[in-house]
Amino acid sequence: MLRTPVILGASMALRKNRRLFVAVTYAVMLALTVTILIVPSWGNRFATVWMTAGGAFFLACWVVFGKLVKQTGPLDIRGGEITSLGLVPRRRDKDEPDEREAAIRNAACFQAYRVLALYSIIIWLALELSFGLSASAAIKLLELLTMPLLGMVFTLPQAALLWTEPDVPEEARV
Amino acid sequence: MFMGYNSTSDARTGPALCNRIAVLRAERGLSRSQLADALEINYQTVGYIERGDFNPSLELAFRISEYFRLPIEAVFSRKPFRPLSEEVYGNRNSPRRDRPK
């Protein structure tokens, strides 16, 4: 399921390294989200730069997480079909998940979906409660809540797998 | 665990199936990698199946037994297998009390 490259000297075969990688990425996402509070109103040049940088970071996260977990990234479109939608795909090459890997990926996507569903309820509740706020404060609140949603939508299933999968055993090759 | 989620146990589709893949592999001098390549699956998946951490689909179970040229019931079972030596030699190694006096 996992690809195990070495990132900055840390092997992704080891779970502790993967957990550290996920924790650092999510910490950056959180920091980006919190900076919303200090970004001035829309139309400002700083806000535009911030939005572009934030969007680029989330896209990069999606690509990198998708590279670490088979068939979960934006570049996994092969032969004109989105193969990641297949429940038990027939393996066409070694890089594609087999039935166990597909089952694990689907379980991770299901769990992530439940978290996101719960989170979207929180956003809705916050919007309901924001009517008393000024327009700019309501927009800030909306941004503050939707930013983590954007990050999680693209990376949560992969993060769950990177977090939970055990160390990749080298002795299994024997 | 991730929100009550454990990837390995969630991938299992029911009670663990018993299998003889490790024995058959050792008998034929095959590594997990070699078997995995022949079956077009990940070498880790072979380990998961051997340990009973993942139940293969019916199609993969048939492919495995066809690879070993054995009937599927000789490779997979819902109950623990008896040792091969016992199955092959029956009571030959049984305690003396079983023999006629």
Give your account of this protein's structure:
The complex is a heterodimer of chains A (174) and B (101). Chain A is mainly α and 174 residues long. Chain A is built from 4 helices and 4 strands; from the N terminus they run E-E-H-H-E-E-H-H. Chain A has one domain (6-83, 96-173). A two-stranded antiparallel sheet of chain A has the order 1-2. Chain B is mainly alpha-helical and 101 residues long. Chain B has a domain at 15-76: lambda repressor-like DNA-binding domains (434 Repressor (Amino-terminal Domain), Orthogonal Bundle). Chain B has 7 helices and 2 strands. A two-stranded antiparallel sheet of chain B has the order 1-2. Chains A and B meet through helix 3 and helix 4 of A and helix 1 and helix 4 of B.
Give the largest chain-chain interface (CB within 8 Å): A-B, 26 and 28 residues
Biggest sheet statistics of chain B:
2 strands, antiparallel
**CATH 4th-level superfamily of the domain at 15-76 in chain B:** lambda repressor-like DNA-binding domains
Q: Please tally the β strands of chain B and state the result.
A: 2
CATH architecture field of the domain at 15-76 in chain B: Orthogonal Bundle
Question: What does the secondary structure layout of this molecule look like, with pairings?
Answer:
The complex is a heterodimer of chains A (174) and B (101).
Chain A: E1 6-7, E2 10-11, H1 15-34, H2 45-68, E3 77-78, E4 81-82, H3 99-129, H4 135-164
Antiparallel strand pairs in A: 1-2, 3-4
Chain B: H1 7-11, E1 18-19, H2 21-27, H3 32-39, H4 43-51, H5 58-67, H6 72-75, E2 76-77, H7 84-89
Helix pairs in contact in B: 3-4
